[in-house]
């Protein structure tokens, strides 16, 4: 059965919408918003500047500042001014964030186990192969600036 590029495009949009909705519901269970989760993901491995975070998540500096304000109030992150340039603010994770990350990972693992539990090993391999091919093509296009 041949499928058109438009039909594939529609399926990708539908998948993206479903995943975004599921992510929103999962984040809400932890008292977070999706943008807060995006900020957390950016700084979890290493501190980053507010500008780096804003650019990485594709939101304005003022919007990112509001998100970080809420995360800081909750005790998940802290701001530290750069010693050599006081205009630069680094965002560091707090210890409290580690517990939250453990919860997020457990929820994600359980979610995907449930999603893929009904697939055979061959079906999972086919899904993985197709996703890898799609990711490779999208990363190539992204690298080309298209």
UniProtKB/TrEMBL annotation:
Keyword DNA-binding belongs to the record: yes
Boundaries of every HTH marR-type domain copy: 5-140
UniProt-recorded Gene Ontology molecular function terms: DNA binding; DNA-binding transcription factor activity
Source species, domain of life: Bacteria
UniProt keyword Nucleotide-binding present: no
Keywords assigned by UniProt, alphabetized: DNA-binding, Transcription, Transcription regulation
SUPFAM superfamilies xref list: Winged helix' DNA-binding domain
PROSITE patterns: HTH_MARR_2
Protein name: MarR family transcriptional regulator
């Amino acid at each position: 059965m041949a499928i058109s590029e438009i039909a594939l495009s529609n399926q990708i949009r539908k998948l993206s919408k479903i995943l975004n909705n599921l992510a929103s519901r999962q984040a809400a269970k932890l008292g977070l918003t999706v943008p807060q989760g995006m900020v957390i993901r950016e700084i979890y491995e290493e501190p980053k500047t507010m500008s780096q975070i804003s650019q990485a998540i594709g939101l304005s500096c003022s919007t990112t500042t509001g998100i970080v304000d809420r995360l800081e109030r909750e005790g998940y992150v802290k701001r530290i001014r750069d010693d050599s340039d006081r205009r630069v603010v680094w965002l560091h994770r707090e210890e409290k964030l580690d517990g939250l990350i453990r919860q997020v990972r457990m929820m994600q693992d359980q979610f995907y186990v449930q999603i893929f539990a009904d697939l055979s090993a061959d079906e999972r391999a086919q899904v993985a192969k197709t996703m890898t091919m799609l990711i490779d093509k999208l990363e190539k296009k992204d690298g080309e600036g298209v």
